[in-house]
Write a structure and sequence with these properties.
Strand content: 15-25%
Helix content: under 10%
Strand order of the largest sheet: 1-2
Order of helices and strands: EEEEEEEEEE
Largest sheet: 2 strands, antiparallel
Number of strands: 10
Distance between the termini: 44 Å
Radius of gyration: 17 Å
């Protein structure tokens, strides 16, 4: 839980667990602040805080919980699986087309 934030929930109120009817242990790749919320840790992505996060490839494409689904610079779309505009894929990484250091 982030310092100073207050939540209301009718779900599981135990930190490290999530759920509405029963408390389920937080899965790998998530932070569960209580209630029915799962926040992805760095290296994981989820379309919403109510969906179990999935590991990203590469892990550096996904910065973790940012209040909304978000990708690292150069990555876009679900699971940060695609390269953003002005980026190209080399192996599993998205590199900038504008970065001259990549051509040497």
């Amino acid at each position: 839980r982030k310092e100073g934030q207050v939540y209301y929930s009718d779900g599981c109120m135990l930190e490290g667990y999530y759920g509405t009817d029963k408390c389920i242990r937080c899965p790998v790749g998530a932070i569960c602040p209580g209630g029915n919320r799962l926040w992805p840790v760095a290296g994981y992505w989820t379309p919403s805080e109510k969906t179990v996060p999935t590991q990203c490839t590469p892990a550096s494409a996904c910065p973790g919980y940012q209040n909304v689904p978000k990708c690292s610079a150069g990555y876009t779309n679900d699971y940060c699986a695609d390269c953003a505009e002005n980026y190209f894929r080399q192996s599993m990484y998205c590199l900038s087309c504008l970065d001259d250091s990549q051509s040497q």
